[in-house]
Amino acid sequence: MDIVDAQVHFNLLDSLKAGMTAMDAVGVNAVLYDEYWGFDEHSRILPGYELPNGAFRHVFPLAEEAALRFPERFAYLVRFDRRDPQLEDLIATIGRMPQRKALRVVPWTEEGFTQFAQGADEPVFAAAQKHRVPVFVLLPGRTSLLRPYLHKFPDVPVIIDHCGVQLPMGTPPADRFAGFADVLALAEFSNVSVKWSHAPRLSREGYPYPDVLAMLLRVVEAFTPQRVMWGSDHTQSKDHHSWAESLYYIRDTGELSSEEKAWILGRSLRTTLNWPAPTR
Fold it and tell me: Is the pTM of this model over 0.90?
């Protein structure tokens, strides 16, 4: 089976060689690389630099290197400040530069969520629709904020990040799955997919996470396997579960067919991002 991880901050895995060794050990064929070094004093995701107008220009040197050296193993996503004067030109590079496949919108702060709700990211979505760019959106517990964008930009492939719900850092509360009501409601939009990452944090039963698997089955039923994609976000989730555990509870379950697993564990991401598997 072609297994593709929809999110790893691969630069945090010591070295490219060490990370690829870990990929091979787990059985991951390819990774969508999300380069992330941390945050600056203004809560801006590094690496990057400030422009004269105050916008932040993100750069992706290590992701680009990995994708150029090992195109069969890596593609990468990018993020751009909506205030960047070259926003549309930058978004137009996605799908044209080698292995640059998608855009990620991360409001992150309370101010960012408020501005997103007010439509501040419409220029981002407008450029994404014009240039046929998939957009990952991180709105934990606030997925309903997407609705106006989905109505206005129906041709943008939108991927809901990290299951779309608030993910507990400690013991999950009894109502931990309540946020999925808003996520499931977005299944009516045919251009929306769900990135199923960090989900084991929601489990109160431990590996192989039967309570989480039951929720996944509901999401797959609503969205179809073609619109659900697995991601580990391993560097950020390893405090709770291993890379292997994040994958194997899905890969080894008898609750999903082989065809469903093939879509969830790789084919959905490749199809959405127009990232064909290498010919062997």
Answer: yes
Q: What are phi and psi of 168, to 5 degrees?
A: -70, 145
Q: Does the pLDDT of residue 280 top 70, yes or no?
A: no
Q: Which of 118, 121, 124 is nearest to 94 (CA)?
A: 124
pLDDT tens across 235-270, in order? Answer: 999 999 999 999 999 999 999 999 999 999 999 999
Taking residues 28-41, report their average pLDDT.
97
Q: How far is CA 215 from the centre of its chain?
A: 18
User: Among all chains, which residue has been given the structure tokens 């991880």?
Assistant: 5
Contacts 24+ apart (CB under 8 A), 147-155: 147/186, 148/119, 149/121, 149/122, 149/125, 150/186, 150/189, 150/191, 150/192, 152/122, 152/125, 153/122, 153/125, 153/126, 153/128, 153/129, 154/189, 154/191, 155/129, 155/191
CATH 3.20.20.140 fits 4-272, yes or no: yes
pLDDT of residue 108: 79
Mean pLDDT for the stretch of residues 20-42: 97
Position 40, amino acid: D
Are 143 and 187 in contact, with CB atoms under 8 Å apart?
no
Is cis: bond before 134, omega within 30 of 0?
no
Q: Where are the domains of the chain?
A: 4-272
